[in-house]
Amino acid sequence: MNDPIFFDSWAGIGRILVTGVLAYAGLIVMLRGSGKRTLSKFNAFDFIVTICLGSMLATIILTKSVPLVEGLVALGLLIALQFTITWLSVRHEPFQALIKSRPTLLVHRGVYQERALRAERVTKEEITAALHSNGRAELSAQHSVVLETDGSLTVFQAG
Q: Is the CA virtual torsion 112, 114, 118, 124 positive or negative?
């Protein structure tokens, strides 16, 4: 079989343009309708959903065997599932613990918490970088550092 590498047909280009615009517009409408939480600062669960949405959108646009309406239903299903899971996690503590991580104390009053660093796979160099980005030259006995649920590092200074 001789598959074209650079160009197949103008019909294929037209299909991608039409499907791409409509699928993208559908995704935007669904995301706006699902609320700010869908596009909030990421935790691991949100990151996975976002990757899945991107993959599904690309499949809808580029795969001829996936009709636009079926693709939009798939996107809507994923968004509805994400909305439902986050709704449940806000209302039921056990469910929240299932999908969200908890913040982890990595440095307490200037002392590295070695077990926590290993468990979270965070290096002392990353702690130093977080200190620098917060205008701190080095770690002191007043500093504590927390690994937040979204993967960011927060530096606190005791008064």
A: positive
Q: Which residues contact 121 (CB under 8 A, 6 or more apart)?
A: none
d(CA 13, CA 60): 14
pLDDT of residue 37 exceeding 60: no
Q: What would the pLDDT profile of 43-97 be if each residue is shown by its tens digit? A: 667 778 888 999 999 999 999 899 999 999 999 999 898 888 888 888 888 877 7
Q: Are 134 and 146 in contact (CB under 8 A)?
A: no
Using an 8 Å Cβ cutoff, are 149 and 117 in contact? Answer: no
Residue recorded with tokens 């598959």: 3
Paired tokens of 27:
């995704």
pLDDT, the chain, mean: 85
> In Å, what is the CA distance from 8 to each residue of 12, 57, 122, 150?
7, 21, 48, 43
Closest to 157 (Cα-Cα) out of 140, 147, 143, 145: 143
